[in-house]
Design a protein that fits this description.
This protein is α/β, with parallel strands linked by helices. It is built from eight helices and eight strands, in the order αβαβαβααβββαβαβα. The longest helix is centred in the C-terminal third of the chain and has 24 residues. The protein is globular and about 45 Å long.
């Protein structure tokens, strides 16, 4: 299973209201190519900080499911956030690590994820659900579970493959991306507020 195939499986199943955060580099570029949407946030730079952003967003928007989708290099840079997430245990957070055992965006240098079990670390930290997958069938099963259950999940997907040579970059500036994502959050919050304020018709 390539990283692109894994991202395609995730993005084609992603519910419209769900918020999806993608780490810097090739994961953001491939996700933008597969299915761009206002509810997607692409981290342009700031490697390793996506989990902190995802945790804060999950706590501030408890009615929305938040997907944090990063690579093994990014996950290894922010290991301290893993027990922090587990301590807060947001039931609306799904943490996905696409592990190709390499820093692809900087030249393909190997990471240490071939000998460090990131799923075992998440398990030890206290994530409610921890799943490890190696192919598309198992990934689809794990995604079914993630969508059916409201629980903090860590999903480690072992992937292969390099990005296509012609893969484009995220065409939005950081400022435009931030404004678009913020607008999607404001519109959802307004819709929820209006729905809650509607009077209930008598029977």
């Amino acid at each position: 299973m390539t990283r692109y195939e894994a991202l395609h499986s995730i993005l084609r199943r992603l519910p419209e209201r769900d918020l999806a955060l993608f780490t810097t580099g090739m994961i953001s570029r491939e996700a933008f190519d597969i299915r761009d949407r206002p509810e997607n946030f692409y981290m342009i730079g700031s490697m390793g900080l996506l989990t902190s952003l995802g945790l804060g967003l999950a706590l501030q928007a408890p009615t929305r499911t938040v997907w944090v989708i990063e690579g093994d290099g990014s996950a290894l840079m922010s290991l301290g956030t893993v027990p922090l997430i587990a301590a807060y245990r947001p039931a609306n957070l799904i943490h996905v690590v696409l592990d190709n055992e390499a820093y692809e965006s900087t030249g393909g240098q190997p990471t240490i994820s071939g000998t460090v079990d990131l799923a075992a670390l998440a398990q030890a930290a206290g994530y409610t659900l921890v799943r490890r997958v190696n192919d598309e069938r198992d990934l689809d099963a794990a995604l079914d579970e993630a969508l059916a259950r409201r629980a903090l999940m860590f999903l480690l997907a072992k992937v292969s493959g390099r990005a296509d040579d012609g893969l484009g970059r995220v065409s939005l500036t950081p400022e435009a991306l931030t404004e678009r994502f913020s607008q999607a959050l404001r519109q959802a919050a307004s819709a929820n507020h209006n729905a809650a304020a509607e009077p209930v018709s008598p029977c």
